[in-house]
Amino acid sequence: MNPAHRLLQAAKRSEIDNLQHLATTCELVGDISRFIHALQKERGASNVFLASHAQRFAKRRLERIADSLTRERAIRERLDHLPQYAASNARLLKRIACVWVALDDLAGLRRDIESLAISADAATRTYNRLIGGLLAVVFDAADTADDPDVTRSLVAIFHFMQGKELAGQERACGAIGFTAGEFDAPHRQLLLQLIDAQQRCFDTFSEFASDAAREYWQQQLSLRTQDGIQQLRERACTDAAQQLDRDLGETWYELTTARIDAMQQVEAQLAAELSQLCHRKIEQAQADINDQQQLDASLQDAIKHCSTCEQLADLFPQEATHELGQLTANAVESRLNRALIDLMQSQNARLQHISDELENTRKTLRERKLIDRAKGMIMEHQQMSEEEAYRFMRKASMDQSKSMAEMAKTIIDLADILQKRQA
């Protein structure tokens, strides 16, 4: 085996090592999905408990906490061992450190809820921050993956998990209003924003997900549950203030829980699909290494195509080709070396294709970050809701014949200039 052949094998082993680390990260995604689901249920039960002044869901809340603690132990064990697989990913490790602090604060939050020392809205915000940190771990995993197929799968599952979390926040918001018997203007506005944001997440999921994943998502949607939720949404979001039957709080909770449980089934399917994808790629890479002897044998019978020496000669002036000498020409034209060069050229083309696919996916992620940042600036400076800011950007981009990402960059650049002048 010559050095070039050994280098190709070393490269393949490095690829396998990276894929195995990525598979470990993908297993973490599954654990995060299950833990978030438990936290979402705990958050919903806690909201009913707080909004009813401990008159409802006391036992159910304790059941949810027990489930969360089981999932929490699994996630802590996974996070504790992750640094050895993500030692070069500083951003991901920082995310995990923040999540760890939030996990340590959970016990205090639960005590405050038990003693009614915290409002339902404040408790929701605390749960939201922890869940948001866990989702950020998934996002960072998607943003740093080196395989385009795995990246697309991670992007799809991240946006589905984000949409499910927004559905969980909608459940929490609705639980507060229905249990209290009325929705004030801020909670009605929040409900509308959450409904719209969910749809955008699920649209992005559909863009990146596999056909099988999209079909599975459609199968899980219950029209009866959806209709029931829509009717309650309409009652909650009516402009005129009205008193609501407090029993609707439990009806709302049950319907939205059924919907979120169905989403959890989709998440489980997506996590399984992601794990299978990683392990298929690992098996293929291992098979490629094990097939080197067969490659050597096939090289002996390879049909001579065009002269590699002639290909190299095209790179030089005519007179310079004579300097190659017969020995060099013979070495370059040998079947083994020529086949290895062909193999490396083929691999280079494949890697370039992978790089292009990966860059396209990451470009989508970068553009999303720009749009979210610009939208936040508009919301802050123009006192707009998230939906109003998004519509403002969309109209501005259409009026100026720019993409949403270009419009977002213009807004961010302008804001930076104005801040420098004020300073």
TrEMBL record:
Keywords of this entry: Coiled coil
Claim: Coiled coil is one of the keywords in the record: yes
Transmembrane residue ranges: none
SMART domains registered for this protein in UniProt: ANTAR
Domain of life: Bacteria
Record-linked Gene3D superfamilies: Winged helix-like DNA-binding domain superfamily/Winged helix DNA-binding domain
InterPro entries: ANTAR (IPR005561), CheY-like_superfamily (IPR011006), Nitrate/nitrite_sensing (IPR013587), WH-like_DNA-bd_sf (IPR036388)
Coiled-coil ranges (or none): 341-368
All residue ranges annotated as the ANTAR domain in the record: 351-412
Protein name in the entry: Nitrate- and nitrite sensing domain-containing protein
Naturally occurring in which organism (per UniProt): Franzmannia qiaohouensis
High-level lineage: Bacteria, Pseudomonadati, Pseudomonadota, Gammaproteobacteria, Oceanospirillales
